[in-house]
Amino acid sequence: MNAGRRRKQTRDGARVAVPDADPTFDVVVVLLDGGYASTGIAPVEIFASAGVIWNWFTGEEKHPRFRVNVASLDGRNVQGMCGLAYKTNFAIDEVKKADIVLVSASSWSLHDGVAKNAKLKAWLRKWHAKGAYVVGICTAVAFLAESGLLDGRVATTHWGVADLFRQTYPKVRWQTDRFVTEDDRVLCSGGVYAAVDVSLYLVEKFCGREVALQCAKSLCLSMPRSSQAGYAAIPQIRVHSDEKIRSVEEYVRANFARDLSIAQLARRASMGERNFIRRFKAATGFMPGNFIRTLRVAAAKELLEADGAAVQVIAERVGYSDHAFFRRLFKRQTGMTPGEYRGRFARLTIARTELARGPAGAD
Using 50, 70 and 90 to split pLDDT, how confident is the model at 312? Predict the structure, then answer.
């Protein structure tokens, strides 16, 4: 990651170079023969647009947030599905820098695709070990699974190959109802449009929500779909192996608007309350109450962006009958009042996610 320099106009009209506080990130998109090239081209265009198109539309100085390169296994051009050929910048072995590595969809034949692209496995492990975010789109999730990066981790893929992937890679925690999953810098998405979902998800993760919303609106795209997008606004839960706590996490995510007590959650985990609190904090990094409040604020953000309902109504939909407490909590977590947040972000939003349509128990 590298910081650059931007031009700033002084009071006397001169333009001088000033240090740029916003870093530029390196993205490598790997295109594979025989696949849907749109699952690689769409991410290229989204990452290349962040900080550029919106700025151009609004008369601001362009500030690219990502450097994007396209690679193939051997540096040669790629023949995609439908007979389209695509030019690449270099071979994967020539990649020097990468904050994000994204692999586009391969052919529908799982075994043929894995055999033809076997060298990807070690290469993906290397970049993940270096700290890069590694992303598989649609059928390319198979390469992440083959590399071992998905063992014990949450993943998704296209519904059409979901059963085959479950049988072939039983160590993976498949959640194929999701469009996007993230687990310890390993991301998966299912289907062609999900390449857009995961790209905007990463723009938000690396550059912030406002940049992602600006990018989406500039390209006339919706923000990431499915409940995963709602969790983008909260800190990622650390990876852990406590299955009882994981089960409670999933229950809370689905029911955060309900009246959830520590005693109730402890019973679900078959634990005493003090032991439950200790194990939940050790596994997730959150106290149970803080986890619930963070989920509620994340859902409230989405509703404020997409829904014109009064703040009091939104507070109740995410689980707070005490409207004053909700406002204080929201400001403490975001630095803004609900009204200020809506004024800043609602004008940028085109379409929202399932949380914005109402969390469980909020009807």
Answer: very high
